[in-house]
Design goal:
By secondary structure, this protein is of the alpha/beta class. Helix content is 37%, strand content 15%. The chain is built from 14 helices and 13 strands. Helix 4 crosses helix 5. The model has no long low-confidence stretch (mean pLDDT 93).
Length: 367
């Protein structure tokens, strides 16, 4: 008997797509220890390992581009369009190469977040394609007009061949998908106890005065770190290895490197429980992990990216929050930190078991 084999294709755009699906992959592996996971992505192996505790095959391949960006806010539409056209022109050879690989490895199911070509690859390989996300790339590209409209039509046609979509919270309608199943929040859970994190990093501030700055895998250019000096009795935490040194700023990556620390694979979600708020840009994976842990979110507004509006609406509905115009973050003095957070507009809570629901469906299918 061959092992049940799951091929996981991930959009190559920052880290925000790798995180939710890796948390699902980790649960699949725990529920079905003999599963063979094949992670198909250009996301770095260390990121996947920080969410997946067991073994997996890493196959670095790119089937889409997402949006080409210089950082978490700044988009390069022209380069994005050129790369999309290039992938579309190579569609046949990309599909043929993956079908060979899938057949050689006797893959049972393809799970994707959310490269459009994954659906065509699965259909050509004669296996099901299941996807998960809160938006499709057609939703992002169509409002940009011009040649992006034709690209969005092509993407919609690809998504039409997906067998099942697990639609995450804060979603657009995702009309291109024929079979839609709504699920709860996805994402990782902390690896460490709050006391362990605080002791390891020498954090003594109250939760209300402990702030995590996290802007995803692409980071953010020109964070005005000088404002930190205005809050000497607060503790700030960053994963930005280019951050300057301040007495009240912990640079997690640099600290771990310097101390050859044994806290391996530490992630922003591991710090969330000790923080009174996180400061972020609109991103599903960060928002979902914060909501699962009920940590308040301070978010910048992000223009020109259709998903942002849905995410900001969701945060205002379900989380204690502040929504900042970029000028207040980049050019202001960060007095917003002293202002009270806004309460959620809705009293009900979101389902927090999206990862578990998707993993169970996958395992049931593999069995």
């Amino acid at each position: 008997m061959s092992r049940p084999t799951l091929y996981i294709a991930i959009t190559n755009h920052g880290f925000g797509h790798a995180v939710p699906i890796s948390s699902v992959a980790n649960l699949v592996q725990k529920m079905c220890p003999d599963v063979l996971l094949i992670m198909v992505t250009t996301a770095p192996r260390w990121l996947l390992e920080s969410y997946i505790s067991g073994d997996f095959i890493h196959r670095p391949r790119a089937f889409d581009v997402g949006v080409i960006q210089s950082d978490s806010i700044t988009m390069d539409k022209q380069t994005t369009l050129e790369k999309l056209k290039e992938i579309r022109s190579k569609e046949r050879s990309i599909i043929a190469g993956e079908v060979d690989f899938i057949k050689q490895n006797r893959v049972d199911l393809l799970l994707a977040d959310i490269p459009p070509l994954a659906a065509k690859i699965a259909q050509a390989a004669d296996i099901p394609c299941w996807m998960l996300n809160n938006f499709g790339w057609d939703f992002i590209y169509r409002p940009w007009g011009g040649e992006f409209v034709e690209i969005a039509d092509w993407i919609g046609e690809c998504f039409g061949q997906c067998d099942r979509l697990f639609r995450l919270p804060f979603h657009e309608s995702m009309d291109a998908f024929p079979n839609v199943f709504d699920v709860g929040l996805t994402g990782g859970t902390p690896h460490y106890q709050p006391e362990e994190i605080k002791a390891k990093f020498g954090i003594y501030t109250d939760k209300e005065k402990t702030v995590l700055l996290t802007f995803g895998g692409l980071g953010l250019a020109q964070i005005p770190y000088q404002n930190i000096s205005r809050f000497p009795d607060w503790q700030f935490i960053t994963f930005d290895s280019n951050a300057p040194e301040f007495p009240n700023l912990i640079n997690v990556r640099n600290k771990l490197d310097k101390n050859h620390n044994n806290l391996l694979n530490i992630r922003p979600v591991d710090f969330m429980p000790i923080c009174g708020r996180i400061i972020s840009k609109p991103g599903y994976s960060t928002f979902a992990e914060a909501l699962k842990l009920e940590i308040p979110v301070v978010s910048l507004i992000r223009e020109g990216f259709a998903e942002s509006k849905l995410l900001l609406e969701g945060i205002q509905d379900y989380s204690y929050h502040q929504i900042l115009p970029p000028t207040e973050f980049f050019d202001g003095d960060w007095e917003f930190l002293r202002r009270p957070l806004q309460p959620p507009r809705k009293s009900e809570k979101l389902d927090k078991n999206g990862s578990e629901a998707i993993a169970k469906a996958v395992v049931d299918y593999l069995h």
